[in-house]
Amino acid sequence: xxxxxxxxxxxxxxxxxxxxxxxxxxxxxxxxxxxxxxxxxxxxxxxxxxxxxxxxxxxxxxxxxxxxxxxxxxxxx
Length: 77
Known about the structure:
Blueprint: H1 3-8, E1 12-18, H2 21-33, E2 39-42, E3 57-62, H3 66-73
């Protein structure tokens, strides 16, 4: 992997985390409405409701979009 590959495909950044997949999907739809691509990362096994200490469902975006995504989601995440 070259430096250009890293710049072209930077690591995704988690901009918010939600307790349920439904909440994460709403956030993902909101980002999509503003033209920000995102993916969901189920940080707990089986997609169940997280217990204390587990991360839930993360919403990831390109590093370059992270600041905009956080602004768009505001207090949602």
